[in-house]
# Entry
Amino acid sequence: MAGTRVLALDPGLTTGYAFVVDGELVDTGQLPGDVCLLHDLITEKQPSVVVCEDFRLYPWKSKSQSWSTMPVPTLLGAVELYCRLRDIPFTKQTPRAAKQKYPDAVLKEIGWYRRKGPHSRDAVRHAALYVGKCP
# Structure
């Protein structure tokens, strides 16, 4: 894990991020879901891997997404392209996998619970899942 710099993202209209260096959570936050801001964040953090919460349009949500510009898939595509152009490994995880393994109680147990907003915490869950943080 030495030298590993993991940037985990929960993309959306408000995008959460978590940054882990050598297995330690060093930064979390939320920012507007803007392609340019995400580009700047990736450029600033210089991650060795980017982990994103994946997007699926579930049937029960399809009606509410009618006529949507689909900002989350747009952000995911932009982040994936940027990573590919920079040779940064990119991986996606399901929301369910991260939330089941790392509910708030577990984040508190491992010392990774932060009060910077729900999207930030979701990004922390994905970072914890990726690095295999154990309680």
About this structure: Strands lie at 5-10, 14-21, 24-32, 49-53, 90-93. The helical segments are 35-45, 59-62, 71-85, 95-101, 104-109, 118-131. The longest helix spans residues 71-85.
